[in-house]
Amino acid sequence: MTEIGHSAEERPIYSVQIHDQRVNHNVTIVIVFGSHSREWASQNSAVFLIRHLLNNTKLHRHIMTTKWYIVPVLNPDGYHFSTTKSSLWRKNRRLLANSKCVGVDLDRNFPAGWKSASSKKGWCEQDFSGPSTLSENEAQILKVFLEKISYTDAYVDVHSCSQAILMPFNYQKVDIPKDSLKSMTDAANQMKAAMEKTRGTKYAVKAGSDLRVVGGTSLDFAFQDLDIPITFMLELGYVNKGETREDLLNCFHPSDENLVFLEKECLQGLLALNQYLVSKHQPRQKSPDDFDIKNQGSTKSTLYAVSLSSALFQMSLLVRNKCWQ
Ligand SMILES: [Zn+2]
Q1: Rounded distance from Cα 107 to ligand 1 centre (Å)
Q2: 159 CA distance to ligand 1 middle (Å)
Q3: At what angle do helices 40-56 and 76-84 cross, to 10 degrees?
Q4: pLDDT given for residue 240 in this prediction
Q5: Given the DSSP bridges, would you call strands 66-71 and 230-236 parallel, antiparallel or unpaired?
Q6: Is 33 left (phi over 0), alpha (psi -120 to 50) or beta?
Q7: 36 C-alpha to center of ligand 1: Å?
Q8: For position 58, what pLDDT does the model report?
Q9: Which of 29, 85, 135, 195 could cross-link 265 (Cys pair, CB 3.0–4.6 Å)?
Q10: Among residues 235, 246, 263, 265, which one is catalytic?
Q11: Which Pfam family, giving just one, matches this sequence (predicted)?
Q12: CATH class of 2-322
């Protein structure tokens, strides 16, 4: 576990890197959770995923040969605020200069298509895209983190609760290049099939712009600006999701029973993505400039670069307990 920076209110933002140091790594997956603070299934699914990877690595060779980079809570200030004061808060908690409003929507603050997003939203709106592109600490931290990783096969940004696996573009109604579209659609369909097995939830596979056209997402930034070949926004969600405010609240803040299903769906989707990538890749030599936890001053165990540290337990308690207050 590595601290990759601090939020506007000085909370640490962590990344968790999981890999077996004894093997060459064919695949690198980066997964980010909790950019939208009210989408509690996301942060909880991060803990569920980390526990699974740490507990099951010996059993699954396809997990062992992958480097997993996980940011469990990109927006800790917003998450704290959502779980203690205002449950539908979505943005970060930065005090904006010359404004009575607080916070920026981190997933509207990235460069790709930002201009189109910024022109439409007021500063007090929950999806305010910020005074300028990458104006927010948390977005900057994620950008730098992604750029340090020498090669990323797939990037997934986990949200809730639109029940979909979204591909680029989000900011424009333009198809991505054919090769990219084919590999992304193939991977997404494998994820969808695996997720559906949990309890029958059918996830839609489509472009983000088919859900809504918005700019400044990390989905488009990772694909367009960082050239990561497979990028998804995973929108966890329910079967028979209703449209009322109560339905929405239930979806953003699921019951314990529903939360477990969402965590499992997320896990199964990500494992299926990994399996897809492993099946497509030839072994690749480790690059000398691979972003490695050794260079970040973190602890490491003999077998894995990451263990369930006390910080992870603290994070887990935060996720498990504060949601239900
Ligand atoms: Zn979201």
Answers
A1: 8
A2: 4
A3: 120
A4: 59
A5: unpaired
A6: beta
A7: 5
A8: 64
A9: 195
A10: 235
A11: Peptidase_M14
A12: alpha beta
